[in-house]
Amino acid sequence: MMAASRPMIEVCGVSKFYGTFQALDDISFTVSDGEKVVIIGPSGSGKSTILRSINCLETIDRGRITVDGMDVSNPKTDICKVREEVGMVFQSFNLFPHKTVLENLTLAQSVVRKRSKKDAEEIAMELLHKVNIVEKAASYPAKLSGGQQQRVAIARSLAMNPKAILFDEPTSALDPEMIGEVLDVMKTLATEGMTMVVVTHEMGFAREVSDRVIFMDHGRIVEEGTPEHFFTAPTHERAKLFLSQIL
Amino acid sequence: MLDNQSTHTPIDVGDGAAIPHKNDAGLFTAWRIAFFGSIVLCLFLAFGRPDQYMAIFKFVPDGILITFKVTLGAIVLAIMFGLIAGLGRISSNRIINGTASLYVEVIRGIPLLVQLFYIYYALGRFVKIPDMLSAIIAMAFCYGAYMAEIFRAGIQSIPKGQMEAALSLGMSRQQAMRQVILPQAFKVVLPPIGNEFIALLKDSSLVSILAVSDLLRRGREYASETFNYFETYTVIALIYLIMTLFFSKLISLMEERLNDGR
After folding, report:
1. Chain A residues touching B155 at Cβ < 8 A
2. Do B162 and A111 touch (CB under 8 A)?
3. A residues 1..30 contacting B (CB < 8 A)
4. Which of A13, A232, B67, B164 is deepest in the core (most CB within 10 A)?
5. Which residue intervals of chain A are DSSP H helices?
6. Whole-number Cα distances in Å, B218 to A238, B60, B109, B133, B202
7. What is the rounded average pLDDT for all residues in chain A?
């Protein structure tokens, strides 16, 4: 935690409605450069929705979100530029099934970043090495286990050199024995200083890696604080109840 | 695919000839009997009854070429119309979406033969273009509407997460469509497009009413000169049958290879 680091992601008073249902209710928080923030909460609490709003996969009805100074909620902002700088890792991996692992990593590099094939492949191989899956470079995603696919998905988003990465329940679709390998990669990223916002149910990860925990319920932020504070002495009843049920 | 397929026998309402299933690997499949049977029958007629039939076989081949030209030209154009209209049907822009939907609804509600007449003569009022070209455009315009629905369904069958993943990597919608969605949708739409191709090959016989000398029209020309109606239309039917059977086999082989590649 750097004391005077600049804000990377700022969320100010964000609300969102699905018809009359309020999915997000006046959400505000800031993520500094290099900070790791974990968002937890029961399902339907709006944690994925706020995460997806940050790179505009969901639109918001009120409030403001800025990423590295770019106003995401302003329709005049080139949203592609924002997404180039913010990686996203999905629960269901979403690798491109018609492309090999290597091509999954090089596609956006060449289409968006306009890198040469050689440069893109070099970067891709380096990242596959980092997530420990070099031997599968020529395979298609269908031939990979869930854990392997998710590691490739992380490498794919890293290939764009993002300033921050959003993780939307990255381990929820995995068999228990594969969760560890994905969390290890995420821990490595964290120690390297990547700005991360993680929606997860992995309390061990939240406790070990995060700088700050945000607890959400019914579209609101109920409690926010350091992991020590949150896991040992939560102030709100709802947070206590949640923790007692899952720990 | 329906989940209850194993309990109910699905009723095949597909257009085109029955495509032999891999499991029906016996020597006498319906396809083989029909295909080789019609070839043998053609040979028998041509060489066994040369005085009635040989002349027909010599007269109509020009028409086969025209039929192919019309079919190929129309399918290529129809795929383009269909892709554009299909993308329009899933567009969030209301004007584009409305226009594409209107096109599909109007075209699908008018019989093909009526449309052929209409577009052919409508085109003829404003521009002077060759008969065959306007027939091709008319066919393609009709089939494009059906193609649009195939493309729309194909694109919508690709999971939403694919678009989201592409967008979150910084791709524009167009880039994501071209690089990620369409290549995957192509595999899905290939079999129904194959069926449309065969349907179009058969429907191309309708252009014979528009001063285009396709296979059927050549047959009519010959028959009206010689009054050998029965013999002529026997040959015409056999040639159409051989062509559609040939292409349906080709398409089913292509499908198999695509499925193996997965």
Report:
1. none
2. no
3. none
4. B67
5. 47-54, 79-85, 101-111, 117-130, 146-158, 176-191, 203-209, 227-232, 237-246
6. 83, 6, 30, 18, 15
7. 93
Cα B213 to Cα A33, B69, B74, B77, B217: the distances in Å are 73, 11, 16, 20, 5
Q: Which domains does chain B have, with CATH numbers?
A: 30-260 (1.10.3720.10)
Tens-digit pLDDT profile for residues B71-101: 999 999 999 999 999 999 999 899 999 999 9
Over its C-alpha atoms, chain A yields an Rg (Å, rounded) of: 18
Residue B2 confidence (pLDDT) above 80:
no
Give A141's contacts (C-beta < 8 A, 6+ positions apart): A93, A95, A96, A97, A99, A101, A104, A149, A152
Question: How confident is the model at residue B259, as a pLDDT?
Answer: 73
pLDDT of B21 reads 59
Instruction: Calculate how close chain A gets to B165, using CA atoms only, in Å.
Output: 6
CB spacing of B184 vs A97 below 8 angstroms = yes
H or E, element range at A17: strand A7-18
Contacts of B113 (CB under 8 A, 6+ apart): B206, B209
CA distance A245 to chain B (A): 31
The verdict on ipTM greater than 0.85 is yes
CA torsion angle B21 B24 B27 B33 (round to 10): -50
Among A57, A95, A142, select the one facing B168 at the smallest CB separation.
A57
pLDDT tier at B144, thresholds 50, 70, 90: very high
What global pTM score does this model have?
0.82
> From the CA of B74, how many Å to the nearest CA of chain A?
29
> Is residue A107 less than 8 Å (CB to CB) from chain B?
yes
pLDDT at A3 exceeding the cut of 90: no
Do the Cβ atoms of A112 and B168 come within 8 Å? no
